[in-house]
UniProtKB/TrEMBL annotation:
Start-end of Low complexity biased regions: 142-157
UniProt-listed SMART domains: CBD_II
GO BP, sorted A to Z: carbohydrate metabolic process
Biological source species: Nonomuraea solani
Keyword Plastid among UniProt keywords: no
SUPFAM superfamilies: Carbohydrate-binding domain, Metalloproteases ('zincins'), catalytic domain
Domain called CBM2: residue spans: 30-140
GO molecular function terms noted in the UniProt entry: hydrolase activity, hydrolyzing O-glycosyl compounds; polysaccharide binding
Region (Disordered): 142-164
One matching Pfam family: CBM_2
Protein name: Cellulose binding domain-containing protein
Source taxon at top rank: Bacteria
Coiled coil (residue ranges): none
Keyword Signal among UniProt keywords: yes
Length: 356
């Protein structure tokens, strides 16, 4: 988060104004790039019910600053432990994202990660297809045209609004920012880690909706959000303009007794930041970049989200760096905690019933 010295008084005042009302700037350059990749998947060892594998990635195209590799297992394999990458699995579909230290790959640059998993003791076939940042890895390089803008995404499910007493999450993409799957995927991972941490701390946690991240196509270009005054000083302009648009489009309140709302926008402006309070988290471009894995170690962004969710649930900043996640100790995440008084404050607060 970018709360200049965790200024609790200013944060509370500015959010009260903003919520009662109706890093590095994310810049996606639209140009023809050379893209291509090569993946080598090797079963390094295998035993009854278990196996180990190594995945080597070679970037054959233009340099990249973060990567997401996807494949699908065809015989029921499951991953139980991974290293040098963050790995998630849904059914047979696997998503691996770079660690903080191996996201940048120059042209012809390589990296690798490994994992242990389980198999059915009958067949353990090598996956047949991989994509790197959405590009199918064929072992060759092809030029790609200017990235296409995604179709308008309806952020609310057609069957009706999400269940109440849940956490809704939004990525607002300004009209001149190209769609990048790393952003909804990365923000979702940050929210899932925060959900896990709350469970560890409280013995109960909040519910995320499906899909976890609702992609909202912004009405304005990035500079409009950054330079149109809202909520007082410029620190808040991007995030308050985002929040106002989300409220208008989705019929959200501030506060809203139905949901806790988390918004991230790919816009920032000089000196911009974000914060939390009154059932909202509103974050600017450097947080969105961080979640996408292209702006520093992930623990920084995990801890920051836990901190801001604490504000959304009603907690103030700690008055000193005291080891709690409501102080600057969140920079050391996961080596921070909620004190008993903070836990009681959340559980007895307006959103305590959101934890189950």
């Amino acid at each position: 988060m970018h709360q200049r010295g965790l200024r609790g008084g200013l944060v509370a005042w500015a959010l009260a104004v903003c919520l009662a009302a109706a890093a590095v700037t994310t810049t996606v350059t639209a140009h023809a790039a050379a893209v291509g990749c090569q993946v080598t998947y090797t079963v390094s060892s295998q035993w009854t019910s278990g196996f180990g594998a190594n995945v080597a990635i070679k970037n054959l195209g233009d340099p990249i600053t973060g990567w997401t590799l996807r494949w699908t297992f065809g015989a029921g394999q499951t991953i139980s432990q991974a290293w040098n990458a963050g790995v998630t699995q849904s059914g047979g579909a696997v998503t691996a994202t770079n660690a903080g230290y191996n996201g940048s790959l120059a042209t012809n640059g390589s990296t690798s990660f490994g994992f242990n998993g389980t198999w059915n003791n009958s067949t353990n076939p090598v996956p047949t297809a991989f994509t790197l940042n959405g590009v199918t890895c064929t072992g060759s390089v092809t030029p790609t045209p200017t990235p296409t803008v995604t179709p308008t995404v309806t952020p609310t499910p057609t069957s009706g609004p999400p269940p109440s007493r849940t956490v809704r999450v939004y990525w607002l993409k300004p009209s001149d920012v190209a769609y990048d799957q790393r952003y909804p995927d990365g923000i979702a991972k940050v929210m899932q880690e925060a959900q896990r941490f709350f469970k560890q701390q409280f013995g109960k946690t909040f519910t995320l909706n499906n899909p976890i991240v609702e992609v909202v196509n912004g009405d304005r270009p990035r500079t409009w959000y950054e330079n149109t005054p809202n909520c007082g000083e410029k620190y808040w302009w991007s995030v308050c303009n985002m929040q106002a648009e989300l409220r208008r489009k989705l019929g959200l309140g501030a506060p809203d007794s139905r949901w806790i709302n988390v918004g991230e926008i790919s816009a920032e402006g000089e000196g911009a930041g974000g914060g939390g309070g009154n059932g909202w988290v509103i974050l600017s471009g450097h947080d969105a970049d961080g979640a996408a894995g292209i702006n520093g170690p992930m623990n920084r962004w995990y801890g920051g989200m836990v901190h801001e969710l604490g504000h959304a649930f009603g907690l103030p900043d700690s008055t000193s760096t005291d080891g709690t996640c409501m102080s600057a100790s969140f920079y050391s995440y996961p080596n921070c905690t909620f004190s008993q008084a903070q836990k009681d404050g959340i559980l007895r607060g307006a959103y305590g019933s959101f934890l189950s």
